[in-house]
Amino acid sequence: MVKIGFIGCGGIANAHLDSLLTIADVKVAAACDIVEEKAKAFSQKSGGANVYTDHHLMFEKESLDAVYICLVPSAHTDQELIACKKKIHFFVEKPVALSMKKAAEISAAVKKAGIATNVGYVIRYVDSVWQAKDFLKGKQPAVMHAFYMCPFVPTPWWRRMKDSGGQVVEQSTHIYDLARYLLGDVDSVYALGYRGLQTDIPENDIDDASNAMLHFKSGAAGNVLTTCLMKAGGGMGVDIVLKHARMFVDMSVFRLTNGETKEIKPTNDPRLEENKAFIEAVKTGDRSGIRCDYEDGMKTLEVTLAVNESIRTGRIIKIKS
């Protein structure tokens, strides 16, 4: 039986819980949230997890195999480091941190502890995305256009750069990660941002929109458009051009045009897939199903932080990893 604790019992934690409740030999033993009512509701849904409002006490009292860390980005303090010290495997939601210094500290602790980690980049677990990645093997993409366009998120912490890192770091990180997953690592970034159309929202200091140029180590060029100005008609996806071929990838389709157009639809539940992969790694030590561990998630963080730095400084930012 895999005994699991949750730190953070909000929306995304509940989505993971829905999946975990369908997986055999899993027990959610502890639920921790600074809002006790959330932890209690989570406990009831999970079948009776012990309730905590302090993760230090949870780690002290419970004997856990794994922990899910589903927090506001700025709320990450020592949760991952304690898990590493106790050799407790962890699943962490994106972004993995708000600074590369913090992420590097955690990454070093993960390696020292030898534990399994998984980062919640759920698009990597869509089976049609796997087929898109397989199609690209041995081929050279030339150019990529990606986009993430959606309405403004009303949650108060999301609008504060110090708490979320902005839309690029907290939300459209999914599309930056998908671009990395399909085309490989990025070596430089140049970005422009715009803000000023949503000054009516109290405390809002994040960009309304951004456009980032990416240069991949493979030589491919790309750009990523992000905005939270939409009311309707938004979406997300990655468009890639190769010699004599074009492909579009999102969570709902892999569309390939190379003389004729072929569409491949997903057939699996990616949220369930990512949780099954993590539980299997914890239970058996087989980590082959994990498609984004902490170190890989840290590389996506570096790209998104570079976008913010480029917007702020007007410079091309070199990616170090």
Automatic annotation (TrEMBL):
Descriptive protein name: Gfo/Idh/MocA family oxidoreductase
One annotated GO molecular function: nucleotide binding
InterPro entries from the UniProt entry: Gfo/Idh/MocA-like_OxRdtase_N, Gfo/Idh/MocA_Oxidoreductase, GFO_IDH_MocA-like_dom, NAD(P)-bd_dom_sf
Superkingdom as given in the UniProt entry: Bacteria
Transmembrane residue ranges: none
Gene3D superfamilies assigned: Dihydrodipicolinate Reductase, domain 2, NAD(P)-binding Rossmann-like Domain
One Pfam family it belongs to: GFO_IDH_MocA
GFO/IDH/MocA-like oxidoreductase domain sequence ranges: 144-234
Residue span(s) of domain Gfo/Idh/MocA-like oxidoreductase N-terminal: 2-121
